[in-house]
Amino acid sequence: MRLLHADADRLTFHLSAAERALLLELVERYPSVPPAHLRQRAVAADDPEAAEVQRLLDEALAEQRASTRQQIRQLLLSNPNTFQRRSDGWALHLRPEEFETLLQVLNDVRIGSWIALGCPDPLPDRLPSDLERARHAATMEVAGWLEMSLLLEARRDAAS
Amino acid sequence: MTHAADTTAKPDLQPDVSDRPKSELDPGWLVVCWNDPVNYMDYVTHVFQVVFGWPRQKAEFHMLQVHRQGRSVLTRETLEKAEHYVHQLQRYNLHATLERAE
After folding, report:
1. Which residues on chain A are in Cβ contact (under 8 Å) with B50?
2. Distance of CA A84 to CAs A101, B28, B98, Å?
3. Mean pLDDT, chain B cut into blocks of 10 residues (102 residues total)
4. Is residue A31 within 8 Å of residue A65, measured between CB atoms?
């Protein structure tokens, strides 16, 4: 993956056919983080406003995830302008807010796999022998690689 | 019906704070980000830049504070704004909380 073009309105990345296939596979898995993991206590329980603040944040997050799921599927799976075939692979066109949504989605899939692995700390440095766990570890690795590739390519452009 | 002002009245010794900015009256709420073992450091820095509009250096400072000290107070705001920031950070799967400022 590499950045082909960036301006204030759009970023264009080059993806190989394999990278595109992996990206689409991962996007299908969003959301991966279980809702119970997301409902972290955001305010001290003894605060008089805790219940109301917590309810608002939980509702906002649930709504946002439903909306993000719809947006990312529309963007990557339905919108014919997002991917353009090139002789050497694919061009991925993203507006800045779509770039952020994609980062959130990839990170969610990565963290969802980490949770499925039992939240290991430190992170695993080799594939587990169990097939199901190996699948989660591989998903985590690939989602992380795509996430960081997007981020570093975009930053490289900003720095130049 | 209104009364004319009594110009002989003693001045009120209590400070008039009605027109002060709210931040002076209400200590506000702190937005705190907590360390976790899974999010990449570069990702956290990027999120701080996007959510708060910070330059990279400031975002990196707070990311390192989270990483080394376990948490970083990112900003002090009204409850409404602090909730907004916590929601934005949670969208990116960062562990963010609110605390009443002392």
Report:
1. 100
2. 20, 49, 43
3. 40 46 74 95 98 98 98 96 95 94 86
4. yes
**Helix (H/G/I), strand (E/B), else coil: B94:** coil
What phi, psi does B32 have (nearest 5°)?
-115, 135
Q: Do B50 and A100 touch (CB under 8 A)?
A: yes
Q: Which residues of B touch A123 (CB under 8 A)?
A: 37-38
Answer yes or no: is pLDDT of A109 > 70: yes
pTM of this prediction?
A: 0.87
Q: Which residues, other chains included, contact B8 with Cβ-Cβ below 8 Å and sequence gap of 6+?
A: none
Residues of chain A contacting residue B86, judged by C-beta atoms under 8 Å apart: 42, 57
Q: What is the mean pLDDT of chain A?
A: 92
Per the CB < 8 A criterion, the answer to whether A6 and A12 are in contact is yes
- What residues contact residue A134 under an 8 Å CB cut-off, 6+ apart? A127, A128
* Degrees to nearest 5, angle at CA A16 with A12 and A21: 100
Strands B29-34 and B95-100: antiparallel
Which position has the token pair 């309810």? A55
What are the backbone dihedrals phi and psi of residue A14, each rounded to the nearest 5 degrees, phi first?
-95, 130
Q: How far apart are CA A102 and CA A19, in angstroms?
A: 14
ipTM, 2 dp: 0.92
The count of other CB atoms within 10 Å of the CB of residue B31 is: 26
